[in-house]
Amino acid sequence: MSGALKDKFAIVGVGLLAGRFEDRSFRTLQTEAARLAIEDAGLAVNDVDGAIDLKIAPGAGDVPSPTDAFPRVLGLPCRMFFQVSRGGTASIVGVLAATKFLELGMANYVVLASGTKDYSRSRVARRTGNTSIGVMERAGYWGKPFGDLAAMSHHTFFAARHMHEFGTKKEQFGEISVAIRGWAQSNPLAQFHGRPLTLSEYMDAPPLVWPYNIFDACVVSDGGFAIVLTTAERAKDLARKPVYVSGAGVGEAMGQLWWDKANYTRLAVQTARETAFREAEIGLADLDFAGLYDCFTAEVLFQLEDYGWCKKGEGGAFVEGGRIGPGGEVAINTSGGLLSAYHLGEQTHVAEAIMQLRGEAGERQVANARIGLVTGHGGEILSPGMCSTHACMILSN
Amino acid sequence: MSSSYPKPAIDEDNKPFWDAVRNRKFVLMQCRKCGAWYWPAAYCRNHANQPFYGSLEWREASGRGKVFAYNVHHRAFDPAFKTDLPYVYALIELEEGPMFGTNIVGCDPGDVSIGMDVEIRFIERGGALLPVFGPKG
Q: pTM of the predicted model, to two decimals?
């Protein structure tokens, strides 16, 4: 099993759109990202024969299936096309699926693309007095009549539980927010570029849903993301320095939800981590940077513990003193992440990892970056069942 | 504003639960074979199941539990909840085992704590009867 994946496939092109695109459709953003990724790879649209639709679902309910899919819009002559949707893990699950098509010769180049209009949707919601885009439309969704209306309405349980079990302090969640905001100051694409945050500003902010305030929550964005994946063999002949998939893994806690009450202070990291690190044949100390899914601050803290940067319960102390921020000990969420840059799900971190590994990260470039970890998290199955899925991918150059 | 509160999302699986709530009864699913309790509807995870979880049935539960985790909403993400602020949304660990997400009423949000004993209450909101919890006693 081990060695089946390691460095056999590579990301050879990336397309990233982040900003405000009120006048563009979700479909056009996704298609444009795909076009950019194919162009970046030095390929023609006609070379790409596989396509995967990555559905980003950042706590905003079900995203409609496309009635007009991006390969049709782009005129992409694909032999395979399907959708992947699993909370904030779609691109990692999508890459894993694509590798099999490549291995079986059912495709030579696969483009995986997503689009999102959550920023625009939030503006529309605001006009009706709703201050969240979390208008859940799922059948049987539990919490709405009780005022469970936004991701923050139940993600706060993670933070509250960790505070209760381990004495984690509000300031320590603040350290995470401040550190990641610090990274955003060197990313011109970040929504909070030019707007740094101090710990006292964090502490002075009124609670939105205690224990969280506005600075514990990610941004919402409009944008698009795409990558082109191919075999390492084919990658050698292309325009860009290949970014190899060294390992990947998924974890799922759905079956334990409601029963294993440890779910509220840890994420489903274990099987994902073990699979990915075994495949990549590396340890945590080999990472030059990591992009940890940061829909809220507590998720970052949990992952620092779950991946082993520190012990369970010690995440609060670990993040003190700017340890994960610019100039700190470990480079976490160098783009500014979902908290301060833009929210394209885990693809925010995949995009950043590609830039870091190609040496294109500008001011925030991690010196001699060779190996990076990206993680994704999500998949609320029934509020407040909490997110059950986790995935990670180790990328290298 | 009460008419614009979100309505319970009732489907084929949770209809027996909401039917019971209308009669001020708090029911969970119990396995006839091993006694394990479930909420929401589930197949019994302890052994093989009859078709369509045939060995489980909805039964009245104790309506008692402890606060497992909670938060305090200071913002109404939907304007219908404006007059309810600040309100507590909590995860209750029921005496029978399952977790249940609902509001804590009948006390100041500042008096809620993890581990606190709570019991079922029914309140009317937006024309629907809702199962919420309040301090025991």
A: 0.96
